[in-house]
Design brief:
The chain is built from 1 helix and 10 strands; from the N terminus they run αββββββββββ. With 140 residues, the protein is mainly beta. The N and C termini lie far apart (59 Å).
Length: 140
C-alpha cells in the first residue's frame, strides 16, 4: 500500500510539472456576428520545457468541433489549411494569430458576443492537457 501511495504521489507531481511546461498567454476569441457558424481562437503557447511539445487537439463545451488551421497565401489568395497537430519547439513561443495559425471553432452552442468567456481545453501528444477560459473581444 505504501508503494502505491508513493507511486501515485510521484505520478501526480510529474503530471503537474508537465502542465507547467506549457503556459498559455494572450488567449482570446473574436466576436461573431449573429448567425455565423465559424469563429477562431488565438493565443500564445509558451513551451518552457527542454523538449518539443505538440498540440494535437482542442475541445470546448461551447462549440461542436474545433480544428487546428493555418492561413496560407497561394497565388495571392488566402486560404486555410487544416492540420492534425502543431509542434512547439523546446523553449519557444508559438503565436496563434489572425492570418496565421489559429483554432477554428465550429457551430457555437450559444452566441459568441463581446464580454463572454469561453472554456477551452488543449490536448498535447504527451498526454497532458491545459484548460483555460478565453475572453471574447470585438475584432477591429
Amino acid at each position: 500500500m505504501r508503494c502505491l501511495v508513493i507511486f501515485l504521489t510521484l505520478l501526480f507531481s510529474l503530471h503537474g510539472q508537465a502542465e507547467m511546461d506549457v503556459i498559455i498567454k494572450n488567449a482570446w476569441i473574436k466576436e461573431s456576428p449573429p448567425g455565423v457558424e465559424v469563429n477562431a481562437a488565438y493565443m500564445d503557447i509558451h513551451n518552457n520545457s527542454d523538449r518539443e511539445s505538440v498540440l494535437i487537439a482542442a475541445q470546448s463545451p461551447d462549440f461542436a468541433a474545433i480544428e487546428i488551421h493555418r492561413t496560407v497565401i497561394e497565388q495571392g489568395k488566402a486560404r486555410m489549411q487544416r492540420h492534425t497537430s502543431i509542434a512547439i519547439p523546446a523553449g519557444a513561443v508559438l503565436s496563434l494569430a489572425p492570418g496565421s495559425w489559429h483554432l477554428m471553432l465550429f457551430r457555437p452552442r450559444q452566441a459568441v458576443r463581446h464580454g463572454a468567456a469561453i472554456d477551452l481545453s488543449l490536448q498535447f501528444a504527451d498526454g497532458t492537457s491545459t484548460s483555460l477560459t478565453l475572453p471574447v473581444y470585438k475584432y477591429p
